[in-house]
Amino acid sequence: MRINDAWYTGDARRLARVYTHHQRPAERRRLWGRKSAEHRVGRRDHRLHVPLAGDIASTSADLLFADMPTITVGDTATQARLDELLDEGRAQQTLLGAAEQAAALSGVFLRVTWDRELADRPLMTVMQPDAALPEFRWGMLRAVSFWRELPGSTDATVWRHIERHEPGLILHALYEGTADNLGRAVPLTEHYETASLADSLGQDGVSIATGIRDLTAAYVPNMLPNRLHRGFDIGRSDYAAPIYDLFDALDETWTSWMRDIRLARARLIIPDGYMRDEGPGNGASFDDDREVWQALKMPPNDGASITLAQFAIRVEEHRVTAESLTRQAAQAAGYSPQSFGLDGEGQAVTATEVDSRDQRSMVTTRKKAGYWRHGIADMTHVQLQLDAVQFGRRITPERPHVEFGDGVTESEQARATTLDLLSRAGAVSTGTKVKILHPDWDDTAVKAEVSAILAETGAAVPDPVGTFPHI
User: In 10 A of CB 54, how many CB atoms?
Assistant: First the structure.
């Protein structure tokens, strides 16, 4: 997870720190693990990092939550309150950030808590997987402990806040230790970050009763199973193909490309006769803005002329290599190359071709949506329960139904073509066509539109043949 974090952040110094101190010599020989004269302190580091890992994580989140999933319950009053909780809690932004981190770090935790001084409602937050110790039973999360280092920590003393979630309880503890040792438990009042929690604790002095049976935290795996740890219930990262080799090769390619540009800068090779003596101890100089020069009294073939030195830049070779590596990394992570701007080439394509090219990305997104659907339903259910128990809302908490969209928006032209073909075949009614064109309309709006269409086209006029007298 530490390596995944380094690639996800895109910080060159963090990458260098991870690979330089890696236990395996083979890993230290990668681009970011090398220690050469060019990488010494005080000299400019010409290694170039391309943040493809961050792009993969961001693309994963965008495909999942660029359009907010539909979250519904049966009770009208409860649905209205749920919509308020999601809107006031900025649920879409929270889920976008959570999904991006989950793609990089193998999974993420959703936690529901409350702070009456901050907001008069339950809060759904995101907790990092590399600061959590989960406990699973039969593949389900039964408890989890989160920790964080508090401000004021030093090299000698590290303050840690431990927050443990169990069914019906949230336990808090403060530890004073060192960088590699948890240390001893001290009262919450010993640090200003946790002092406000002391008044909320129950009679045991360590826990807060939630008033509900459900666990107030949920684990959402990015993808299962974890190929390196098949016996564990933790998810796997999008980088776990693993595609570290491709990331490293891509950085190597761009570094080489920039090196070509750096070395190919035009340089002039001039004879000594063109140099101007600056006096004893000051060397000589060349004025490249001077327009008139005195001819040298020597044969023209003796190399006494100004020579321009400029090397070729291997643009096409580097471009093709970088594109191939990006394409392979995207496919290894489970996405279509077109999701990263490849294969477009500017030509016009049909909606069917777009859907076909994005098929791999859509399959991966649907797989991830299956994991997110349960986590979101669990935590929104907990929010509703806490809203009723802790804040006295008059609602009927129930587990919401979460539905993700298909991720592909059909163009108006494609939709019109579909409706035209169905109409010619006589396989669709006017009401169905209106619903297809306007899926967000209710029955009243659909009926009004159907009546208007029938009136304009004359289809609502009775057939006069049926009024002819019988002979």
Answer: 16
271 three-class SS? coil
Alpha-carbon gap, residue 392 to 333, rounded angstroms: 46
d(CA 147, CA 127): 10
Query: Side-chain half-sphere of 332: how many Cα atoms within 13 Å?
Result: 18
3-class DSSP assignment, residue 236: coil
Cis geometry, peptide bond prior to residue 187 (ω within 30 degrees of 0): no
Hey, what are 67's tokens?
């359009």
Per-residue tokens: 240: 């776990």
Q: How many whole angstroms separate alpha carbon 86 and alpha carbon 131?
A: 26
- Measure the CA–CA gap between 246 and 329, rounded to whole angstroms: 6
Task: Identify the pLDDT of residue 160.
Answer: 94
- Environment class of 289 (CB within 10 Å of its CB; exposed 0-12, middle 13-18, buried 19+): exposed
91-105 helix and 52-65 helix, angle to the nearest 10 degrees: 140
Nearest-angstrom CA–CA distance, 270 and 292: 15
The pTM of this model reads 0.79
- Residue 291's CB is within 10 A of a number of other CB atoms, namely 5
What is residue 280's DSSP assignment? T
258-to-51, 182, 246, 318, 325 alpha-carbon distances in Å: 16, 46, 18, 10, 17
What's the mean pLDDT in 420-449? 82
pLDDT of residue 175: 93
Does 348 score more than 60 pLDDT? Answer: no
What average pLDDT is seen over the chain? 84
Query: Three-state SS across 113-174?
Result: EECCCCCCCEEEEEECHHHEEEEEECCEEEEEEEEEECCCCCCCCEEEEEEEEECCEEEEEE
Instruction: Report how far residue 264's alpha carbon sits from residue 162's, in angstroms, rounded to the nearest whole number.
Output: 56
Per the CB < 8 A criterion, the answer to whether 364 and 238 are in contact is no
Give the long-range contacts of residues 385-389, CB within 8 A, separation 24 or more. 385/211, 385/212, 385/214, 386/112, 386/114, 386/122, 386/210, 386/211, 386/212, 386/216, 387/81, 387/85, 387/121, 387/122, 389/210, 389/211, 389/212
| Burial zone of 63 (CB within 10 Å; 0-12 exposed, 13-18 middle, 19+ buried) | buried
